[in-house]
Amino acid sequence: MKQLLYITATPKSPEHSVGLQVGGAFLKAYREAHPDDYVRVFDVNQEAFQTVDGDVVRAWEKLRKEHLEFSELSPAEQRKVNALNDMTEMAMRADKYVFVSPMWNWGIPPRLKAFIDAFVIVGKTFHYTERGPVGLLRDKKALHIQTSGGIYSTGPAAAMDHSHPYLRQVLGIVGIEDVQALYVEGHDFQPERSKEIVRAAKEQAVKLAAAW
């Protein structure tokens, strides 16, 4: 049995989110095609999860630089490090990842960045060598369903896309090199084609789900 971690990063409802509509089409088709797989849906805007905050950073410094034992950390530091470890391990258990996110100011939403920081952890999902970082999450794959009102996958505005290129790069650092992109874009730039754009994206999502 494979595990799929399906991560969404928009505060909008499915009725008002193009990304969630396309992602929902993928998820429905995936469950039909892979009925035995375990699917974990994680909405970064609805789920409470531990982020890398001041207590966590101080705890890491005590453990790595001061060589303290875990039991010597403060109760708050112990609790937060454990909670962050739980997040990291949840992500590590997955075999496949789907990220559904809008482009915000040419980047990813801040809650999605916080989620990524919770599992891109040196010593757990990657480690450093003389030749650079080496990922530990091998033989896994990811799909990024990215929405944007304008067109950024190609053309003159492509250089402004700091969303999918970042996600592809950071996943590569932890060893996930099979990263696909499904761009749902241009529905605001070309409103007369918005229904056609969404319909085509849903069809592509269904095909990808069956192949996954």
Automatic annotation (TrEMBL):
Q: What class of enzyme is it?
A: oxidoreductase
Cofactors (names): FMN
SUPFAM superfamilies in alphabetical order: Flavoproteins
Protein EC: 1.6.5.-, 1.7.1.17
Reaction catalysis annotation: 2 a quinone + NADH + H(+) = 2 a 1,4-benzosemiquinone + NAD(+); N,N-dimethyl-1,4-phenylenediamine + anthranilate + 2 NAD(+) = 2-(4-dimethylaminophenyl)diazenylbenzoate + 2 NADH + 2 H(+)
**Gene3D superfamilies under this entry?**
3.40.50.360
Q: Name one GO molecular function term.
A: oxidoreductase activity, acting on NAD(P)H, quinone or similar compound as acceptor
Cofactor binding summary note:
Binds 1 FMN per subunit.
Family (UniProt)? Belongs to the azoreductase type 1 family.
Query: What is the name attached to this protein's record?
Result: FMN dependent NADH:quinone oxidoreductase
Name of the gene this protein is made from: azoR
